[in-house]
Amino acid sequence: MIVFKINEEGTITDSFGQPLIDATYISAKMGEERDLNIEIDEPLAPGDYFVFVEIDWNDLTVDLNFVLNYYGTAKVTFKKDEKDTYSKH
Description:
The structure is a single chain. By secondary structure, the protein is mainly β. 0% of the residues lie in helices and 29% in strands. The chain has a three-stranded antiparallel β-sheet with strand order 2-1-3, with no helix packed on it. It is globular, with a radius of gyration of 15 Å. The chain starts with a strand and ends in a 37-residue tail after the last strand.
């Protein structure tokens, strides 16, 4: 799991002219436990953040659902979910 703060979207392009996201790395964590969490001790600045989660399902996995939560006092809105863009294979 990786957390980035989006600084400005589309201002940087790759070698093919495709827009990239200018972002600042906040934190990351990797593990195989059932509950994986990232705790950020400093308050986050207002803005948009990108959370990337990669799950390597094994061939025996039947239930391909997962949950991404936020615990805190600020109002948070999850704007986009791209899980249906990718398949298990």
